[in-house]
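call fold(seq) -> tokens
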Amino acid sequence: MDASHTDGKPLARNVKRLGHLDLPGAGQVYVAGAHAYIGHLPNKAGLGTSVVDVSDPRAPKVVTQINVDDPDSHSHKVRVVDGLMAVNVERNNFGIGRKAEQLPPMKKRLEVELGRPPTDSELADKLGVEEKDIPALEASEIHQYTNGGFKLFDATDPANPKPITHHKTGGIGVHRFDMDQNYAYISTEMEGFIGNILVIYDIRDPAKPEEVSRWWMDGQHLAGGEVPTWEGRECRLHHAMRVGDQLWAGVWQAGLRVIDISDITRPVTIGAYNYHPPFPEPSHTFMRMPFQVAGRTIALAIDEEDQYYSPREAEARRGRPHANLWVFDAEDVADLKPLAIYQGSESSTPWAETRGTRYGAHQFQEHFEDTYVYCAWFSGGLRIVDVKDPMAPLEAGYFIPEPVGDAPAPQTNDVDTDARGLVYLVDRFTGFDILEFDRP
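ret:
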């Protein structure tokens, strides 16, 4: 289907829409059997997870929704394995929370410099926030967040998930994660560390998750005397994906890591690659493909377009590379080699520079059945990339949803596929789409 955005329809090539729901903005979609599980971004209704019956892709039906039950938290990630559902619990508005951590030392510093207590305006200027945000920072400083972690549910009946446990971790809580029948590979903050680290939990008894091991980069363990060589939390685990006895991890501005877990009690780094600098956008997801492609063992990495277009940034960002999809030779994990980059064309979407939105890569589906890679590309929508030639990835199709309601642009955030070959998208603002790819 090809359509002009001027007639209120999506833009597409080799992809057509089968079904759609105006669901609130979401961070992840995960398909298991005949149901799609959707983790929602923070919202006024307190909605955490939606379960959608997709057995008829032309008429998807919400069968249940689960609220977060905590006004300070959200659950925007979800996975389901053999009837066990896991969702993250993470603090809302963590940008403000981070500034709250900086508030006490900034007050002391300015008081020394000025010889008097600083005004809210002076504090706001130094912290990079608005003056009206200072009371919220002070409240956040007093009210410590303690609910971060993950929840497990019995989802053998998808229409009626039953809570099992809420396991608490530390800091702002859990972000993205992987899981299988035995273990959960959790990206979370923990006391004594800076930025997210990996904590592996045994979930065979879901009522009592047991910590098995931890992994972190040198410099993250502040309580252990380590000193980071970077500023703040710019180097941290985004999440790690298990492939065989290895975990493949995107670690933000530190690039990529391969972690050996043949002894799951002792994770060991066995591979690393960092393309920052010169590439500015952080590493989000990294995975080895489970089969050889053109006689090569390859891995894929995708960055996250981390910056929003704003009136101030729109001109400054011209010419800056966007977040990419990367192809790596992974035959020797100790010597990872980049082979190629795919970058979606800004000219394919009228919303590439819409203020308050992002254009660039974010995520790909976290399993592979063939050489097609389904990528969420924010205002670039869905990009389907064929890596059958690892040296020359080619776009095989795309689907760019029309904005829903008063949203200024689409913001395709996550993608999954099912055994039927159907494609599922969620949007950061509003929207859930079920698509069919007409393979060229």
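The two ends are 13 Å apart (CA to CA).
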